Amino acid sequence: MTVTDDASSAPAVEVRGLVKRYDKVEALRGIDLTVQRGERFALLGPNGAGKTTLFSILATLRAPTEGGARVLGLDVVAERDAVRRAMGIVFQEPAIEQRLSGRDNLLLMGLFYGLGSAAAKKRAADILGELGLAEAADRPAKNLSGGQRRKLELARALVTDPKILFLDEATLGLDVDARRGFWAQVSALAAAGRTVFFTTHYMEEAEVADRIALIDAGRIVALDTPRALKARIGGGVIRLKTDDDGRARAWMTEQGLTPEPGGDELMLVHADPAGTLPDLLRHLPVKVLRVEIHEPSLEDVFLKLTGRGFGAAPRAAERAGGKVAGRREVNGGASA
């Protein structure tokens, strides 16, 4: 792997030729990507696409089968301990101790990483205040709301003042308001200069990123800004659900239209969708159950590139690799 050796000028994340196999199943199939310092970078894909496997390698919880990766210029295998000290991480699963208060969780983290008692107390107080958790700081974590617990996970990741944050499906299970609150905090941290690398399957979360990598079946299928990715669609989108999608697809093709493959409904890209739709509905030889017109979305891009939507079943590769357990801690706790 040819990567930048000078850690001070190296990208935040550098991945080259990354392959991960579980027995005969390839979870990652030659991943290449670079994330610049200060960038908000989203890894977007459906469940089973390879997001968690790639994340776990960058988090030093798994070793690649082939290729390599660096975080802030540090090799994730050869310099694992240094990588762990340099990053803050929020897993899908809880890593905080539920019986301890929020404050004590942060104090424990600070002491683990060598902060003195006074410094750890000050750091905990500062972070709790910054994230709006000061009033709840002395309650057991198990008694906090779901949104407060996720913010506490974020606070825990910030104790060491890391230059890069890794977030793996960090808002999974939260309601819309709690997710918005969490991302407001993350956006503020990014605005202060931290690199944020996050995985998600929520489209609206990916929209906050400076760049997005779309991943499917262990491969990066596209990597660009949100605006540039959606511009690949080349028009507005008509989505249709009929009582016979196969017949509707065949008829559209005969008319010189090109419905996109895959998904559980028909997707048609057209330069003038509003002008085309009335004529389309008038002549379609099937019953239309549902129809909508919208500007291109990231899911439309994914469907166009892969032929399947985000609701498809998980791939065998990700099932073979399993999930990254929050208790297999990086910044504070047992090693993997």
UniProtKB/TrEMBL annotation:
SMART domains: AAA. InterPro entries: AAA+_ATPase, ABC_transporter-like_ATP-bd, ABC_transporter-like_CS, ABC_transporter_ATP-binding, DrrA1/2-like_C, P-loop_NTPase. Keywords: ATP-binding, Nodulation, Nucleotide-binding, Transport. Signal peptide: none annotated. PROSITE patterns: ABC_TRANSPORTER_1 (PS00211), ABC_TRANSPORTER_2 (PS50893). GO terms for molecular function: ATP binding; ATP hydrolysis activity. Residues 13-242 form the ABC transporter domain. Pfam families: ABC_tran (PF00005), DrrA1-3_C (PF13732). Coiled coil: none annotated. Belongs to the ABC transporter superfamily. PANTHER family: ABC TRANSPORTER ATP-BINDING PROTEIN, ABC TRANSPORTER ATP-BINDING PROTEIN NATA. This is ATP-binding cassette domain-containing protein.
